[in-house]
Amino acid sequence: MDTIQVENLRKEFESVTAVDGVSFAVEEGEVFGLLGPNGAGKTTLINMLVTLLNPTDGSATVAGHDIVDERGAVRDSLGIVFQEPALDEELTGAENLAFHGRLYGMDAATRRARIDDVLDLVGLDAERDDPVSTYSGGMKRRLEIGRGLLHRPEVLFLDEPTVGLDARTRRDTWEYIQGLNDDSGVSIVLTTHYIEEAERLCDRVAIVDEGEIVAVDTPTTLKDDLGGDVVTMGVSGPVDGLLAELGDRPWVEEATRSDDSVRVVLERGETRIADLVRTADDVGVTIDAVEHHETSLEAVFLALTGSTIADAEGTADADTPDQPTAAASATDGEASDPGDTTRSEPAQPEGQS
Ligand SMILES: Nc1ncnc2c1ncn2[C@@H]1O[C@H](COP(=O)(O)OP(=O)(O)OP(=O)(O)O)[C@@H](O)[C@H]1O
């Protein structure tokens, strides 16, 4: 069964169409990623699904409930972790959760039991009575994820879950989210502009560009559809002969010439370098340089949209996790949290494998 169904959803602000009629479904229990540059419309899309914004047009259901006509039921069925941290630093971890439980109208006994469960799940039981101001960036993020799970939602929304975290904490958080999905079966929808996050974490990825979804599939299928890796060779000699030879090889998808180089599309390019060199040698072509580019979601994004995520954002380092984007620096204090380097960061919740 689909946990989320979206039909032609659209959101217009005064002069901007932030979401331009998108349709997709999220299956029960999957980790579904919305991958695209800052400004692509991901947050607006999520905000409509969690009933914070009304769509201009189209429709969607979350856990079977309509996002406009059944807002209360939709809200009860989901948890959300916003891009900007929203914890009370003065309160302890347990107190933050208790506050949230009261907002959801849980009685004291239910609240206590759920808080114990959630702290155990996110591996923060030992720190439950410490003020959140002493937590590392990763611990805060785990507490926020735990808070999103307190009322046992069917689907958890994570808006840019690792923006502002250092590289190690980012990887730990991926493992943690993966473990949570494996163990609890909760469906997870996350937005990201990090290629590696989408590749490593998501069962399926929707590529979002300028308010539209341009492709939805597993990372593997998206990459396979592109045709394979690319090997570029700097060449001199009878290049037409080389192209003809390569065209006869069953393992070559495509071979094209551009000035003094030949571009070959093929699967598992790293296993074919020797064959390529031998083929060139056989026809008397000299190779003076070889570059191998593995297929990545970045290449898929480029092929589908005509620009890289970094270019679309107008930044050179949009996919360099160690260097938060301007938006990340502005909204997340965790990256520079000195606790990050001193507190331990278990990759998995306690008691989970
Ligand atoms: N309340 C608003 N009023 C007017 N324009 C808006 C509003 N919210 C978003 N936009 C515009 O809609 C477009 C999509 O923004 P959105 O925040 O959804 O993108 P995003 O992909 O989530 O990027 P980010 O991760 O930076 O938030 C942008 O052009 C943005 O400026």
UniProtKB/TrEMBL annotation:
Q: Which GO terms describe its cellular component?
A: plasma membrane
- Xref: Pfam families: ABC_tran
Q: What keywords sit in the KW lines? A: ATP-binding, Cell membrane, Membrane, Nucleotide-binding, Translocase, Transport
The protein's topology relative to the membrane is:
Peripheral membrane protein
Q: Has keyword Membrane? A: yes
Which GO molecular-function terms appear in the entry? ATP binding; ATP hydrolysis activity
Which parts of the sequence are annotated with region: Disordered?
312-353
Q: Where in the cell is it found?
A: Cell membrane
Q: Where is the composition biased (Polar residues)?
A: 339-353
The Low complexity compositionally biased stretches are 321-332
Outline the extent of the ABC transporter domain.
Answer: 4-235
Does the record bear Nucleotidyltransferase in its keywords?
no
Question: GO biological process: any one?
Answer: doxorubicin transport
* Classification via NCBIfam families: drrA
The family note in this entry says: Belongs to the ABC transporter superfamily. Drug exporter-1 (DrugE1) (TC 3.A.1.105) family.
Q: By what name is this protein known?
A: ABC transporter ATP-binding protein
Which species is this record about?
Answer: Halorhabdus tiamatea SARL4B
